[in-house]
Amino acid sequence: MPGGRSSNKHSGKPTRQLLFSEALQHSRTSYPATKVHPPGQPCIMMDHTQVATMDRILQEISVVGRRLEGMDSRMTSLTEETKLMHLDISGFQTQVTSLEQRVTTVEAQAVLAPDRDHELLYLRSKIIDLENRRRRDNVCFLGFPENIEGAGIQSFLKLTLPKLTGLTFDPPLEF
């Protein structure tokens, strides 16, 4: 646990846990050269070299414990970095999904494009035809005074067009 604290399972009160190096210092005791044992059990004698070896082992364990404590803080920072990377990946997944939808839309429009081109060509030709019809239906004669045709334009054109053009119309003009 970070900070060396945990809670008591039964009371919910925080209890102090010793760090590894602190526990090692509390457990370190000096080993006497002789130890008194109850009768009936074998007595093990420890000489000075065995005590020195035990002290070296305890020191090495203490060094390893301190290294492990440093690794705990590094593990915490790695965990935080992993969480940030997870959030970044989630954002990328959202962007990829959005881009896939847009590509699907563009592909669908690309399939419809030839039909649109064909329809566009058809509509252009229809517009050209309608404009030409409008021009043919609106013949304008320049150089004639207003209202010269009198009561009907058809009778005026039947008489005037052959005179102006010098052409005879067989059969006669029908309007």
Describe this structure in words.
With 175 residues, this protein is mainly alpha-helical. It is 63% helix and 3% strand. The chain has 3 helices and 2 strands. Strand 1 (5-7) and strand 2 form a beta hairpin. The radius of gyration is 54 Å and the shape is rod-shaped. It starts with a strand and ends in a 10-residue tail after the last helix.
The first-to-last residue Cα distance is: 107 Å
**Strands, count:** 2
Discrete helix count: 3
Low-confidence stretches: 1-8, 30-34
Strand order of the largest sheet: 1-2
Mean pLDDT: 75
SS strand fraction: under 5%
List SSEs in N-to-C order: EEHHH
How much helical structure, as a percent, in the residues? 55-70%
Outline type: rod-shaped
Give me the secondary-structure category.
mainly alpha
Specify Rg, calculated over alpha carbons. Answer: 54 Å
Largest sheet: 2 strands, antiparallel
Oligomer: single chain
